[in-house]
Amino acid sequence: MGALDEPLTKLVGDRTAKVLADSLKLRTVGDLLHHYPRRYVERGQLTSLDELEVDEHVTVLARIEKVTLIPFRGRKGDRLEVIVTDGRSRLTLVFFNQGWRQKELRPGAQGLFAGKVGLFNRTRQLASPDYQLLDEDADSGTAEAFAGRLIPVYPASAQLPSWRLEKAVAVALDKHLADVGEPLPAELRAAHDLIPLAEALELVHRPRTQADRERAQSRLRWDEAFVLQVALAQRRAADSALPATARHRRPGGLLDAFDARLPFTLTEGQQSVCAEIFADLASEHPMHRLLQGEVGSGKTLVALRAMLAVVDAGGQAVLLAPTEVLAQQHHRSIVEMMGDLAEGGMLGGSDLGTRVALLTGSMGVPARRQAMLDMACGDAGITIGTHALIEDKVQFQDLGLVVVDEQHRFGVEQRDALRAKGDTPPHLLVMTATPIPRTVAMTVFGDLETSVLDQLPAGRSPIATHVVPSLEKPAFLARTWERLREEVGKGHQAYVVCPRIGDEPEQPPKKRRRAAEEDLEDVGEDAGAGSDERRPPLSVVDTAGMLAKGPLAGLRLEILHGRLAPEAKDDVMTRFAAGAVDILVATTVIEVGVNVPNSTVMVIMDADRFGVSQLHQLRGRVGRGSAAGLCLLVSEMPGGSAARGRLDAVAGTLDGFELSRIDLEQRREGDVLGQAQSGVKSSLKVLSVLDDEEVIATAREEAARLVAADPALAAHPELRTALESLLDEDRADYLEKG
């Protein structure tokens, strides 16, 4: 075991090591050395307080403005209230029964204050924060420690504030800096003017100037980009060696018959993307392609043409959908588009046709058995289903293509389990309308072949989006319901979306898992959980009842959510599509794939509780016909908050790719080699996939050359060690599965 792999107990003691492991996942000397400051402040430079987020652990440098000791009424004890400022905004510090601190927390003093941002009476505060004063009267050792250099502010926790982390890092640097290896080849460092890694670690933790910090971070960006690109280059090399059955397009077959019946012409984008996919399918190595397309750009049609081409070549194709509602919608629309071509071997079916099977978890036993039989014997050239397709007993005669709709809804293990059902690895096509952060990251890193559909078919109408601040302007919410009535009066229909079902019963664990799989109702990350003033999310059941008795009384309202019986879901959607329902109050089960051209308005309640990508997906359900679409984002969050900023961004653009960048900026990349899909567990500490695309692209070229010359990295032992550190067992498995 190398010195950097030593447990932190030897360096900082058992107690501090336990806190580091439990709160920050830092377990070794190397972990600590690579725990970089999130930002730096200069002595005398105050932290901007108006950017602090509720529930965030922060360390701020601020000046004490006012100190007040407030006795409790009618009982013993007191509250010490300290107001700190950056000159523009203020933050309240609260200490309970600690009046003695009044002697040292004096107005005018500067200090570092660390704690978790909370809300009380709509005012941000830190309760019982840890602090370190830096005022002119502080002891000489403190003044000397902070004078004349940048102060690092580390990602910290309630148990371990930033300055204590700094002291632990200092011990690690003093004792182990000489043990730091050099993973980057010397010629690469020389070509890109990069300092040694040991020097970079010294300067990133102890910079005296901004230039020191920039030199260190430049080197560390390259470490992250290059080591990761080596991992991806090795994976690409392994993928290129895998065998797959080539699926050549057959003239005069099912695909040509389908194309001849289309009542419209494919867009140039659809034709170009189909050509790319057909070329991949004809390869003897498995396709691994991401199809990115705006909401309504015709991704499903492109996927269907790919599936028909595979059926023509003698194989089978499967479309994996995240919810039963979407699976049923896909099945219904594909069967309608294909007509008698979807009735192969059946009375009245076309001689060129095939069967289109549907398989979901709650289908009746006879229907489920027949679908599985059609798949196993090859009669079903196309199968559409949910997670039920992944079960062990589901078999195919010759699975040639797996299409995954809304790929971020599925774990890699699920996709891998489905791909394993082919005798040879089937081709894989994953689709998304708005890439989630991890997808954007992997795309920028060049690990996926990517096709883009950025044209909308003719006849699609624009969607206007507006934020409705329901607390600030209650009249706007009243006008929202009037607007729905007006659209219904014109013969149109509308959606009202809520983040919660309502009246959730207590369920056994197995049923809870299944409800989660079939419903997949994700609440946005920035929902303000933990805030003492946030009410529970609005529910479908309660909202539908309120609307039916109040502003929308007399209209035909129905509800739709993931816990309805499959027959009930299908019945509601069928009647809504037929125009027999005016208002559909639903959860996010209608987020993707639902196509009702007569729907013109969507109202999203508690819109701040959804992510950017979800909001964009949801509003894509309106404006699908000739009439213009309208999306109203209802929120109680105040103007200037991060949540409102996110809603304003959605309202400001219809460009899903721009929104994906906004999403990435706010949530970060996620663990690009692991299963985390939010920035909390990002494996990227210095590198940004948005800001450092040039570094990433250059690192990819350098990594490809190195892996081509030395696939096993035999001549680069330090790089191999860095790669092993990056790829722990879980990430290695994840990378292998694709």
UniProtKB/TrEMBL annotation:
A Pfam family of this chain: Helicase_C
Chain spans, region Disordered: 500-538
The Helicase C-terminal domain, residue ranges: 476-665
SUPFAM superfamilies: Nucleic acid-binding proteins, P-loop containing nucleoside triphosphate hydrolases
Keyword set includes Hydrolase: yes
Top-level taxonomic group: Bacteria
Annotated ranges, domain Helicase ATP-binding: 280-453
GO MF term list: DNA helicase activity; hydrolase activity
Keyword annotations from UniProtKB, A to Z: ATP-binding, DNA damage, DNA repair, DNA-binding, Helicase, Hydrolase, Nucleotide-binding
Transmembrane segments: none
Name this polypeptide is given: Probable DNA 3'-5' helicase RecG
InterPro entries from the UniProt entry: DEAD/DEAH_box_helicase_dom (IPR011545), Helicase_ATP-bd (IPR014001), Helicase_C-like (IPR001650), NA-bd_OB-fold (IPR012340), P-loop_NTPase (IPR027417), RecG/Mfd (IPR047112), RecG_dom3_C (IPR045562), RecG_wedge (IPR033454)
